[in-house]
Amino acid sequence: MPKIVDHEKQKEKIAEAVWNVIHREGLEQCTVRKIAKEAGLSAGSLRHYFPNQSELLIYSMKLVTNRVKVRIENMRFTGTPAECIKQLLLQLLPADEERRLEMEAWFSFTAKSLSDPALRPLRKEMNEEIYSACKLAVETLSRSGAMPEMDAGEEIERLYALVDGLALHALLEPERITADKIDSVLTRQLNTLK
Amino acid sequence: MPKIVDHEKQKEKIAEAVWNVIHREGLEQCTVRKIAKEAGLSAGSLRHYFPNQSELLIYSMKLVTNRVKVRIENMRFTGTPAECIKQLLLQLLPADEERRLEMEAWFSFTAKSLSDPALRPLRKEMNEEIYSACKLAVETLSRSGAMPEMDAGEEIERLYALVDGLALHALLEPERITADKIDSVLTRQLNTLK
């Protein structure tokens, strides 16, 4: 009987190998040969799934955005609106090792997108996802609280910048920006919205 | 009479060529051959200044940090403490084309530093520069204003994340994050400190 291969699982395994190679050696080292070795496959099998490096990179980044979306869809909120909003935004920050690896890959991809227009639509999709979460946060808190003379657009921009800046700092300085620090800085920022 | 060459000027010209190549083609394309062509030099002359690619990259990034420092040292402040603080922090944001090019190069370098430990000391130096500016901002505003029950360390972290997140968004979405938007978002953040 031929071995049954779950093709989606194989592709995810390859995408995770991309994240690992980015983590260890950087995005510029993501050759087909290295990724195949990391995933425990032959270069030929890898090419069966991804005919070229560009498709492989795009797929591995789509998997980052999908994982974030699935994580948010599967959340079960408890608590006040402010607490729920905080739980939602924490999904966008590298609070554990798994998310850290994804976000590190994502960050390298974002840098590459500055000079590679082909990567921009996918990057834009993720940015819009984060922006929407910040928009929801500001709108929810403004309905539940006071926020009398605030400009909602500006408040969204401000929260969006803080979330991405905090994610970046948590990647760069994990000893200083711990999960507790992320939580308290985010809480304080949300309090300035009320 | 032999031509007099200002060696520092030549090195700066080469470093600027690095920024241009990063902008157009990405950091992974910064080969000695390409940089030499961009700077209008032979590969041999370039190697005279920088024996290898790594030294060239480090120098070109040091120039980014130096330009930021010199820009801040040459500032002449006018206005209230809050206005002066805002002028200072705006130096750390890509408010014009020149700063944009520097910061784009810096951002690619930061991404590369995640997998290349040799680049980290220089990256850390720049991060500390930005952190110090945010610390000065929080301390100045807390002296001039009220800030009764605030945790200064947390406030610095929050401003630092906002400044870097805003810089990143201004690089990625220049049409949306205009100089005016940068100014108003920063003003609002500083107001939450008072």
UniProtKB/TrEMBL annotation, chains A, B:
Give start-end ranges for the coiled-coil region(s): none
Q: Does the keyword Repressor apply?
A: yes
Which positions fall inside the HTH tetR-type domain? 8-68
Q: Which domain of life is it from?
A: Bacteria
Task: Say yes or no: keyword RNA-binding present.
Answer: no
Pfam families with a match to the protein in the record = TetR_C_6 (PF13977), TetR_N (PF00440)
Record key words, sorted: DNA-binding, Repressor, Transcription, Transcription regulation
| Leader sequence residues | none
Alphabetized InterPro entries for the sequence: BetI_C (IPR039538), DNA-bd_HTH_TetR-type_CS (IPR023772), Homeodomain-like_sf (IPR009057), HTH-type_TetR-like_transc_reg (IPR050109), HTH_TetR (IPR001647), Tet_transcr_reg_TetR-rel_C_sf (IPR036271)
- Residues in the DNA-binding region annotation: 31-50
**GO molecular-function terms, A-Z:** DNA-binding transcription factor activity; transcription cis-regulatory region binding
Protein name in the entry:
TetR family transcriptional regulator
